[in-house]
């Protein structure tokens, strides 16, 4: 047994879970037993509301989960991260995305250096650059004003800005269109370039390392596209800027260091939207709006750092996730936004959560004997209702879900919004209540169906219910609330990482595939047969090689 599963706090939860199972207590029963539940399991902060009452947890479960958080010293770890300690222990790095959105300007020393000085300087550089593009001071090599910005990046250097840009499209700055290219599959960049004019296009090469194969390949293709048009190397400096920690590689690419926006190794890729990596977003929504995203993130940081654990939204969401995974056995967690603009937000959360907590060893390197991060997936409702909700309602797997909605939309179609939100409320109700075989049969008989048919169909039309859901309501999907929502999930992931004892801030699991891709690429480029891999890989790579050389 590990120190987690052998701890008194875990053992108490285990015993409590077994007693709950023995008593067959459902969420519906809990609402009867705890009449104040809907009020008590409700947290509000700055226009963001969480209802977590539709979970398979009693007041006692919550007390025990909070005991687990205390036993795992969550508050101490939270402070250690905020104070710039190297909590990313496998890379010996501080984890300071909170410093990027620190609106108090209070100093944060790391190794004796106040990181806020550099953060403030880069924000000022970004602000001036955004102004110069917007007011036309910054022009393309041919003298034209920039109308299109293409962010070339992947993973954390892509998903966050793209999700934010899509979520905040109602706040877009007129006159600038932002595009995203990430996949090394050239259909991606071809599709984007086909719509653009090199005279009016600015490329942002976003890469923390500036060595990522996909990003550098796309950046070189974009560079050729620009040079094919202008026929002059000097054009690169007017059509490319870089967001990176790697000054040398940026300079080698031909981007002037004055057009490089820095960030630091204490910013994890999937936590980097708040840094220079957010430049495409700042250009797309304007500086004042970008600052509001930072304000929203900061407001959530304050809530996370200062609220008692039992009223702390990210802590509660994190603990419920642990309960669902480790005690109820859920292998995945669905995120179901009832707002089309949050479609890409789910993709970002997927990376945030799965790259952070998809770990099999604890911080000390010991293999864990419990489940860690779940599979995160989802798509906007109501589309999902007509696609995959069937499995959530009647499948054999338990899929807990977060429902996310916005109270005030940025359109005037009240009728649509009413239908949308009615569906959200109905789904969480249906998932909790279900519908028993008796109810189903009675309904069919009342509609005049023959008893024999009703008996035959009843099992198919029965809903077990008792499926845990959280509901999050935002006042509006504006820059502030978007920042708040994103920071909420970042801290939820942190909370779970601390409970599970894993390092949420490295991602060694992406390395093996990268190495092998390099080796296969060299096989494809070399003369001779491919024989040094397993039989299957040799065969696949040979097929690729012969096809590409035909
Ligand atoms: O391969 C995973 C990863 O390292 C992510 O963690 C990161 O966000 C992404 O690749 C892109 O890395 P970079 O910003 O260095 O290009």
UniProtKB/TrEMBL annotation:
Transmembrane segments: none
Domain of life: Bacteria
GO process annotations (BP): gluconeogenesis; glucose 6-phosphate metabolic process; glycolytic process
Chief place of localization: cytoplasm
Pathway: Carbohydrate degradation; glycolysis; D-glyceraldehyde 3-phosphate and glycerone phosphate from D-glucose: step 2/4; Carbohydrate biosynthesis; gluconeogenesis
InterPro entries: G6P_Isomerase, G6P_Isomerase_C, Phosphoglucose_isomerase_CS, SIS_dom_sf, SIS_PGI_1, SIS_PGI_2
One example GO MF annotation: carbohydrate derivative binding
Signal peptide: none
Transmembrane helix found in the keyword field: no
EC number(s) given by UniProt: 5.3.1.9
Keyword annotations of the record: Cytoplasm, Gluconeogenesis, Glycolysis, Isomerase
SUPFAM superfamilies: SIS domain
Gene Ontology CC terms, in alphabetical order: cytosol
Catalyzed reactions: alpha-D-glucose 6-phosphate = beta-D-fructose 6-phosphate
Compartmental location: Cytoplasm
Active site, renumbered: 355 (proton donor), 386, 514
Function noted in UniProt: Catalyzes the reversible isomerization of glucose-6-phosphate to fructose-6-phosphate.
Family: Belongs to the GPI family.
PANTHER family for the chain: GLUCOSE-6-PHOSPHATE ISOMERASE
This protein's name: Glucose-6-phosphate isomerase
Organism: Iodidimonas gelatinilytica
């Amino acid at each position: 047994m590990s120190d987690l599963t052998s701890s008194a706090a875990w053992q108490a939860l285990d015993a409590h879970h077994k007693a709950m199972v023995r008593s067959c207590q459902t969420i519906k029963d809990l609402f009867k037993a705890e009449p104040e539940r809907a009020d008590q399991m409700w947290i509000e902060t700055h226009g963001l509301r969480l209802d977590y009452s539709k979970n398979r947890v009693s007041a006692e479960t919550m007390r025990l989960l909070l005991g687990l958080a205390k036993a795992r010293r969550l508050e101490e770890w939270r402070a250690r991260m905020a104070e710039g300690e190297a909590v990313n222990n496998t890379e010996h790095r501080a984890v300071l995305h909170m410093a990027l959105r620190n609106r108090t300007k209070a100093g944060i020393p790391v190794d004796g250096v106040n990181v806020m000085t550099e953060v403030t300087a880069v924000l000022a550089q970004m602000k001036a650059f955004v102004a110069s593009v917007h007011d036309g001071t910054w022009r393309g090599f041919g003298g034209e004003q920039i109308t299109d910005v293409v962010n070339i990046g992947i993973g954390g250097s892509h998903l966050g800005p793209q999700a934010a840009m899509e979520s905040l499209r109602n706040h877009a700055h007129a006159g600038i269109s932002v595009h995203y290219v990430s996949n090394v599959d050239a259909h991606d960049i071809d599709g984007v370039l086909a719509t653009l004019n090199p005279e009016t296009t600015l490329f942002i090469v976003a890469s923390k390392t500036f060595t990522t194969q996909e990003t550098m390949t796309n950046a070189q293709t974009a560079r050729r596209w620009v040079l094919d048009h202008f026929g002059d190397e000097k054009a690169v400096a007017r059509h490319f800027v870089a967001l990176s920690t790697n000054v040398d590689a940026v300079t080698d690419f031909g981007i002037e260091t004055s057009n490089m926006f820095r960030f630091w190794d204490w910013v994890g890729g999937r936590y980097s939207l708040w840094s220079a990596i957010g430049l495409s977003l700042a250009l797309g929504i304007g500086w004042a709006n970008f600052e509001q995203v930072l304000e929203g993130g900061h407001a959530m940081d304050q809530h996370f750092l200062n609220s008692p654990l039992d009223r702390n939204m990210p802590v509660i969401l994190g603990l419920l996730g642990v309960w669902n995974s480790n005690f109820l056995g859920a292998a995945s967690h669905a995120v179901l936004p009832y707002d089309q603009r949050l479609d890409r937000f789910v993709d970002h959360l997927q990376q945030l959560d799965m790259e952070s907590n998809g770990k099999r060893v604890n911080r000390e390197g010991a293999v864990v004997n419990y489940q860690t991060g779940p599979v995160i997936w989802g798509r906007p409702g109501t589309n999902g209702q007509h696609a995959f909700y069937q499995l959530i309602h009647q499948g054999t797997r338990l899929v807990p879900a977060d429902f996310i909605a916005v109270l005030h939309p940025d359109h005037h179609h009240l009728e649509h919004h009413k239908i949308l939100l009615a569906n959200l409320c109905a789904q969480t109700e249906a998932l909790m209540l279900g519908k028993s075989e008796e109810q189903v049969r009675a309904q069919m008989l009342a509609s005049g169906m023959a008893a024999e048919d009703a008996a035959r169909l009843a099992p198919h039309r029965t809903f077990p219910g008792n499926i845990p859901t959280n509901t999050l309501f935002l006042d509006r999907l504006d820059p502030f609330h978007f920042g708040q929502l994103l920071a909420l999930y970042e801290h939820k992931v942190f909370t779970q990482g601390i409970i599970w004892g894993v390092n949420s801030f490295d991602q060694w699991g992406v390395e093996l595939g990268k190495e092998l891709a390099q080796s296969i690429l060299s096989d494809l480029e070399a003369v001779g047969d491919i024989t040094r891999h397993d039989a299957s890989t040799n065969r696949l790579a040979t097929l690729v090689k012969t096809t590409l050389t035909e």
